[in-house]
Amino acid sequence: MKIAIIGKGGHSKVIQDLISLHSKLKIVAYLDDKYEELSRKEDIFFGPIFAAEIINDMFNEVKFIIAIGNNKLRSLIVNQLKLTNVSYVTLIHPTAIISTSAKIGGGSVVMAHSVINADTQIGEHAIINTASVIEHDNQLGDFVHISPNATLTGGVKIEDGVQVGAGATIIPKMKIGKWSVIGAGATVIHSIPPFCTAVGVPAIVKNNQLIEGV
């Protein structure tokens, strides 16, 4: 399968390494707005993000992955490109442990040593980062980012656009409202409203945040 990576920063390096572990996947393009025009170096194209339509027409079976850690930017790019859901690939690291009853949406990435347990549902364009644990019966929306070593215990609901910081823990049956941020190392023992930042042990809401364009 041919893969076009959208984004050429730090997160895309991790995505590139993940792709290299799958012998049937081949990177054919990097798209980032640091490039002003579409060009080709050996067998790989480099160009701005809007060139995705050209790449899509150029290759019959190309799939895209948005390799950008920022949830809002991933959302904006998806809305701007208007590619179909089947245009995006779901990438799973071979060391990840995933229940057969779990479901993962298109464009999502599951990194090394992550665990996703029974009947968990993960939306589209999500990032399940290194060594994070998603226990049974969790529901994760679109454009979420679960950072390294974070733990979601059973029955947690994570709405669209949420960022859960590295090493954070969310106890059972909590709800994190859309586009909220849980700070690194926080322990969430109460549900968190939308558009908030919560930090500490136990986590408390520090401020409300306005997210434009979502």
From TrEMBL:
Keywords, comma-separated and alphabetical: Acyltransferase, Transferase
Documented EC number(s): 2.3.1.89
Residue ranges constituting the PglD N-terminal domain according to the UniProt record: 2-81
Molecular function as annotated in GO: tetrahydrodipicolinate N-acetyltransferase activity
Class in the EC hierarchy, top level: transferase
Domain of life of the organism encoding this protein: Bacteria
Site entry: Increases basicity of active site His: D137
Record: active site: H136
Gene3D superfamilies according to UniProt: 3.40.50.20, Hexapeptide repeat proteins
Binding site for acetyl-CoA: H145
Binding site for substrate: G69
Pfam family, one: PglD_N
Cross-referenced InterPro entries: AcTrfase_PglD-like, Hexapep, PglD_N, Trans_hexapeptide_repeat, Trimer_LpxA-like_sf
Protein name: Polysaccharide biosynthesis acetyltransferase YvfD
Annotated organism of origin: Lederbergia lenta
Encoding gene, per UniProt annotation: yvfD
